[in-house]
């Protein structure tokens, strides 16, 4: 590990691939690998053996969702090579620098698979997603940092050069509560952190919608620069949500209708009536409009197409 910089109460130290190999040889490096959308992960853990690789889920959750859970691996040089060849540039998971045995580390990490939200509800916490881990650490209080680190020296996020290791600054967290948990044994998440997580989720959703555009509407969006594609995906999200539409599939459908019938298609009276129909569940309304409105109504919507509406995320009077 080389140069050091500080953000808030977090120290960031870059590590080269050579340094990672050194940590692996010393036996003080682990990897949490996300099996969600990565079917090659569970078989890899099985091949390595339960002494050095296993799912962090346990109990009923292990039985039901092991195929999509986080797997903790002892990070050998061969495992690092496997990760580098398959998915290093993707958000595959995170590295963990820790001198404790894998069982001790697993017990510590399992405490954070479920957290308590500001409203008191419990929710699964994907801290092993690098897109979540960084904003979480950067918004932690000193008590959260001390508790979350425990025996962990640093959490690593893969980079083009190797990895960026993030750790608590001991000067900032000296004397902090190392067991900052609720009475139910859960780490509390702050409203500020929830806002940051939502930003991350929204960015990921924009990425997904851009992929949907390119896959389903390649000809229509071929000449749109990438920043225009992202901006228009954001407009579709905001516009759909203004009607109470929240599900991923329904927002995709809403975006497709904006591309095909015009970004102001929802202003056509017949379409607008369906999108505001209280007798139809919000997430079902886009498909209800497609199924129930005759072709002449869609032709009329297309005839009044106004591409300037791509710049209007929410129509006046439709904010929720």
Descriptive notes:
It is a single chain. With 320 residues, the protein is α+β, with helices and mostly antiparallel strands. It has two domains: 5-189, no CATH class; 196-311, no CATH class. It has 15 helices and eleven strands. The chain has helices at residues 17-26, 41-48, 59-65, 77-87, 102-110, 130-138, 142-149, 170-173, 191-216, 218-221, 226-242, 248-261, 269-275, 285-292, 295-303, and strands at 5-7, 10-16, 29-34, 53-55, 70-74, 93-98, 114-116, 122-124, 152-158, 162-168, 187-188. The strands form two sheets. It has an eight-stranded antiparallel beta sheet, with helices on both faces. A hairpin with a 2-residue loop joins β1 (5-7) and β2. The radius of gyration is 23 Å and the shape is elongated. The model is unreliable at 1-7 (pLDDT under 50).
User: Strand sequence of the main sheet, in spatial order?
Assistant: 1-2-10-9-6-3-5-4
Overall number of structural domains: 2
Q: What ranges have pLDDT less than 50 throughout 5 or more consecutive residues?
A: 1-7
Can you give the mean pLDDT?
93
**Which term fits the overall shape?**
elongated
By DSSP (H or I, 4+ residues per run), the number of helices equals 15
Number of DSSP strand runs:
11
Query: Sheet bearing the most strands, described?
Result: 8 strands, antiparallel
In N-to-C order, the SSE pattern is EEHEHEHEHEHEEHHEEHEHHHHHHH
Alpha-carbon Rg, integer:
23 Å
Strand content: 15-25%
Helix content: 40-55%
By secondary-structure content and strand pairing, the structural class works out as alpha+beta
Determine the N-to-C terminus distance: 49 Å
């Amino acid at each position: 590990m080389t140069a050091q910089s500080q953000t808030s109460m977090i120290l960031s130290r870059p590590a080269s691939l050579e340094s990672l190999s050194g940590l692996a040889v010393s036996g003080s490096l682990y990897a949490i690998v996300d099996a969600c959308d990565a079917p090659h992960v569970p078989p890899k853990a099985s091949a390595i053996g339960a002494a050095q690789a296993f799912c962090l889920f346990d109990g009923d959750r292990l039985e039901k969702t092991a195929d999509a859970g986080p797997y903790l691996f002892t990070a050998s040089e061969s495992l690092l090579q496997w990760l580098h060849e398959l998915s290093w540039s993707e958000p595959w998971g995170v590295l963990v620098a820790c001198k404790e045995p894998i069982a001790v580390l697993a017990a510590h990490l399992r405490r954070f698979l479920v957290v308590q939200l500001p409203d008191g509800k419990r929710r699964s916490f994907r801290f092993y997603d690098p897109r979540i881990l960084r904003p979480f650490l950067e918004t932690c209080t000193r008590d959260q940092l001390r508790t979350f680190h425990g025996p962990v020296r640093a959490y690593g996020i893969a980079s083009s050069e190797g990895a960026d290791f993030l750790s608590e600054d001991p000067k900032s967290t000296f004397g902090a509560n190392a067991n900052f948990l609720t009475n139910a044994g859960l780490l509390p998440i702050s409203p500020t952190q929830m806002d940051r997580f939502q930003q991350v989720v929204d960015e990921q959703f924009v990425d997904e919608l851009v992929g949907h555009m390119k896959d389903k509407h390649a000809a229509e969006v071929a000449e749109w620069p990438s920043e225009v594609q992202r901006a228009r995906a954001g407009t579709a999200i905001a516009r759909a949500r203004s009607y109470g539409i929240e599900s991923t599939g329904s927002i995709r459908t809403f975006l497709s209708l904006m591309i095909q019938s015009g970004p102001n298609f929802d202003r056509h009276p017949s379409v607008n009536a369906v999108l505001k129909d209280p007798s139809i569940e919000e997430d079902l309304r886009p498909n209800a409009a497609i199924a129930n409105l005759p072709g002449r109504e869609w032709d009329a919507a297309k005839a009044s197409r106004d591409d300037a509406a791509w710049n209007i995320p929410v129509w006046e009077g439709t904010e929720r």
